[in-house]
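Quick one, C-alpha cells below:
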C-alpha cells in the first residue's frame, strides 16, 4: 500500500513506513557489495599461493636501500669559499640533494638546494663544487645502484665565532678534561 507521501507500508505486525529512496539506496549498496565480492573472488581465483606475500612486500618495502652507502673519493672537498664572504667572516651550512649514478658521478641536472645557508653566494659555491664530487657508488648485493642523498656543506672561517651546533664539527681537538678543585 502506498501513502500520499511516497512511503510504503511494510507487511507484518509492525506498520512502519519505508521510504522508496531508502529502499533503492539499500539495493544499490547490495549490488555494489555483490560486485566487489565477485571481483575479489575472481582475483583470488587467478592468484597463486605467493601472490599475497608479494603484494605485502611491495607495500612494506618502499624504495630499495643499498647494502653499502656511497663513499666520497675526493681527497679535498671541491667547495670554494666566496672571497667576499670569507673576508667578511660569513659562515653557513648548505644541504644539497644529490643524485649519484651507478658510476659514482653526481648528476648535475638533479642537484638542488634542500636547505639554504641564507647566502646566495654560499649556496652557489656549494652547488658548483658538487659537480666535482666523485663517489664509490652505493651497492645492493655487490651491484652498483643509483641513489639520492642529502649532502651537507659547511662553510667555516677559522677566525669567526662558532655557529650553534659546531661542536660536532670540531673533531681535531679532544674535549677539555674537567679541572680538579
Amino acid at each position: 500500500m502506498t501513502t500520499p507521501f511516497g512511503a510504503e507500508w511494510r507487511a507484518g505486525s509492525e506498520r512502519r513506513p519505508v521510504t522508496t529512496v531508502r529502499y533503492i539506496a539499500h539495493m544499490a549498496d547490495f549490488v555494489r557489495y555483490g560486485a566487489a565480492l565477485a571481483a575479489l573472488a575472481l582475483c583470488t581465483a587467478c592468484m597463486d599461493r605467493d601472490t599475497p606475500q608479494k603484494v605485502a612486500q611491495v607495500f612494506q618495502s618502499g624504495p630499495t636501500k643499498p647494502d653499502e652507502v656511497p663513499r666520497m673519493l675526493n681527497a679535498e672537498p671541491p667547495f670554494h669559499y666566496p672571497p667576499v664572504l670569507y673576508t667578511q667572516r660569513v659562515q653557513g651550512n648548505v644541504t644539497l640533494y644529490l643524485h649519484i649514478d651507478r658510476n659514482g658521478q653526481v648528476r648535475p641536472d638533479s642537484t638542488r638546494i634542500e636547505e639554504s645557508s641564507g647566502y646566495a653566494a654560499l649556496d652557489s659555491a656549494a652547488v658548483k663544487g658538487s659537480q666535482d664530487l666523485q663517489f664509490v657508488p652505493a651497492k645492493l648485493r655487490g651491484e652498483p645502484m643509483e641513489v639520492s642523498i642529502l649532502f651537507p656543506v659547511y662553510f667555516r672561517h677559522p677566525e669567526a665565532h662558532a655557529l650553534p651546533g659546531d661542536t660536532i664539527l670540531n673533531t681535531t681537538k679532544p674535549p677539555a678534561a674537567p679541572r680538579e678543585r
